[in-house]
## 1
Amino acid sequence: MSSDPEDDALSWEGDDALEARRPSARPAKSESVEAPPPAPADAPGEPRVTPTAGVAEQAGVAEQAGVAEEDEQGIGTVSLLMFGILGGIYLLYTVGWFIGGAGMQSKAMFMLPAPLYVASLWIAILAPALWFAASLVLTRGAKTWVRFAALIVGVVLLVPWPFVVAGGGGVL
């Protein structure tokens, strides 16, 4: 800390410790990298190792580690927001299938026996949640656009038509 009272007003106790822990804007170059000693030139059949080859090899390892660090950071904010929006759509689809299917039950009983209708109703109710989970699990290693494509295909295919057409009343 300086002895100037104006500088004291603009700083807090312990600012120096925070500055020491703050990462620098540019990564510091490692100067402790030691190249392996060169092999004797008269050794037949062995490749000669130069100091620059060892440094280049270590730089390649560092670049691979940097790529791995980027992969471990996770998904971005926009992707996370889109997954949330699509998950909400699938949740609304589940509710829509429940309401639309329950409202249509009395009118569909003349075509299907009750156990078959109830089984198909539960399959329809669970389909959006199963599609969402399957899309996320099966495209885990894929690129983000592939995951979104799988989810958008499900949004198009799993529209709760009994709810959309009849407004939940089941009148078809």
Note: The first helix runs from residue 5 to 9.
## 2
Amino acid sequence: MITLFIDFLKFEKRASVHTIKSYQTDLDQFQKYLLFQYELEKPQEAKAPMLRSWVVSLMEEGMNPSSINRKIASLRTFYGFLKRKNVVSQDPTKILSALKTRKKLPAFVEEKSMEMLFLPDTFTDDFEGVRDRTIMELLYGSGIRLAELVSLEINDLNLPARTIRVFGKRSKERVVPISTSLANLLFQYLALRAPEEDTNILILTNSGKAVYPVFVQRTVGKYLSAVTTLSQKSPHVLRHTYATHLLNRGADLNAIKELLGHANLAATQIYTHNSIEKLKKTHQQAHPKA
């Protein structure tokens, strides 16, 4: 049944590769637990106490509550699928409750640090330097996800209109505006990108192959290390930075939601906490009785 469920995610829900891998990992771990602890081969035959026993075992192993909550969510989605298919009559996950977790504010880079990053002497003028700058400016200048960046194609660009077409989670399409400077940078990059390369993928490695996630992560880490001491130096930090800077400069929260491709406003509202924290610091520094 796990295989059928994964196929459902792939072909009907059109979930991302990362999401599918997470579900596969969680359900494989659960299946192994059932086999070891209860000699039960079929997850669809598991009873509610068995599910709770697995969650308790994860807690006893010291697993992070947020990771456990992800596994609980995987079970809920899986058994919800089984119930819709009439494989099970009752949903055994109803007895499970999410664990309390500490809310972490999104890490972001300060505006002054981003200005330092894009100083003229940071990047070289050859293909590699312009390509690296394009990666950094696309992530910061459009807020797109890592997976969205590596899948961008040349025909997704509309440089005269200063927009890019992005395919987000579940292949949901959105159009994101970009600045004139970023559009000009993309013109420069395309002029250096070998036109005879047998791929439409926009961002290429030095050898002309499509970039891959680890390549982008290393590139981002390399350049962010020069301007910030944040422990996290990932493409997603640049996405957080994009959203936080927009909000700090007065952008409407609903507009940011559309730009980021969030399904609902709740996912976007976390950025308001960063703005509130900034206001608190300003108040503490400036008010006589703070």
Note: The beta strands are 157-158, 163-167, 173-177.
## 3
Amino acid sequence: MTSEKNAQVGQAREAFQMMYQISQLLCTGLDVESLSICIRLCELGVDPEVLATVIKEIRKMGETAAQSKPTNLQS
């Protein structure tokens, strides 16, 4: 790899780490892989606000499913 490519890779890693730190400070609940997917989707033209809404709705659906799941308690 050329030194220019190495510099670009280093800058991309640094930028991603900053975005991940911001994500953690904002308590988004996104892990590294999820954040990476969201960034790639935005780079492909997905509206970030729409993406955030979809993530919130999916989380709500997961919470609802978890709450309605019967617990298997035997006496």
Note: Residues 3-51 form one domain.
